[in-house]
Amino acid sequence: MGLDKEAIKRMFPNLARELQTEEDKVTINSVRTDTFGGEKAVSEDFAHYNPDAIDFIRRCDTEKQAEEIVAYMEKRGEIDKLYAARLKRQFKEKGVRSFGLKKEDDYYLRHGEF
Questions:
Q1: pLDDT at 114 over 80
Q2: Domain that includes residue 25, residue range
Q3: Which among 23, 53, 89, 111 would be 20 to 30 A from 95, CA to CA?
């Protein structure tokens, strides 16, 4: 099925607009052809993993919760003022989900072992 740009614009206007803008692009910096090996490598990463600010933000449901997390981590000296400002700007402009999908309860248990 061959489609030209105009047909795609008519049939999928939002998709066409997203493809033409520079927003919401995701960089892929590695590809694994062995699925089991890739999942095992990821699970081993959680063995001594210490969650960072983004991990905690990904557990939030609202911008208010994310603000509290960032303020708490900044107050404790876990993140500096400049990084805190960048995080706040991102979730205010793009939303909490711009940091990634929500991490549900037991995320590391479910994704860290086989």
A1: no
A2: 5-112
A3: 111
